[in-house]
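Chapter review: from sequence to fold.
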Amino acid sequence: MAIIEVTELRKKYGDHVVLDGVSFSVEEGEVFGLLGPNGAGKTTAVECAEGLRRPDSGTVRVLGLDPVRQRKQLSEHVGVQLQHTQLPENIKVWEALDLYASFYDRSRDWRELLDRWGLADKRGARFGKLSGGQKQRLFIALALVGDPRVAFLDELTTGLDPQARRATWELVKRVRAEGVTVVLVSHFMDEVEELCDRVAVLDRGSVVALDTPAGLIDGVDAEYRMSFRLVDAGAPDPDGLLGNLAGVTSVSRTGDRVTVAGRGDFVTAVTASLAREHVLVSDLRIDKRTLDDAFVALTGRSLQA
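The token string follows.
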């Protein structure tokens, strides 16, 4: 069942169009990703869903409620971690949780959240003394203190080191396991691949694709590569052998290493041709197609550039 429905959402500031007819829905219990570069409109879209911004046109319903007109009612069921969340440097961890719990008519026991999110030993620590990963744990706990049905997490791991990022991913999985629907805003491909059940790709204010991460990768005609070493120096010329196969776009050779680029299921055609001609190879490598490949195919540019 869709618990978030966004239809033809439009928003602009002056002459700058931020959202241009954005539509998507989020199913209960899933981790739904909004993926795109900075300025694509991701944060504006979720801020409209959170009731923090009023769209120029279109409709948004979260748990059947209008986030603008029924914001107070909706806030009892939604947890939010904003893109640029900050707290006073001297506020203590327990004070922040106690304060946020007071905002809700019905809240979780923040002492239990301290234990659950690995903050029990930081109960009396001041916010300014926490590490980046500890701050993210606190922000997640604050987003959950109201016992929400939906949690919006915006650019959760920006600025974290690789170890802290992966630890935060595990926290998101735990949030989902507790039955909370998660809307995850990110510009990190690996993060979306790891965490999201479905993802909407935004570019220049529009949704250019919506599918599972695997579906996005498989659904585009992205070029990728395989390479191998020739065991027999007298093997047939690889360009003549492989260059005309279905899906192959180029064949190059440097010494005994051959690199083949192509689209679709060209790898099967290449390996079958090598087997037919009894060409022995070693050190076979196949580049994995990624969401960045899909983004390039959809938009003509790399998100990671």
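Two observations follow directly from the output. Residues 249 and 269 are 13 Å apart (CA to CA). The chain has two domains: 2-218, 224-288.
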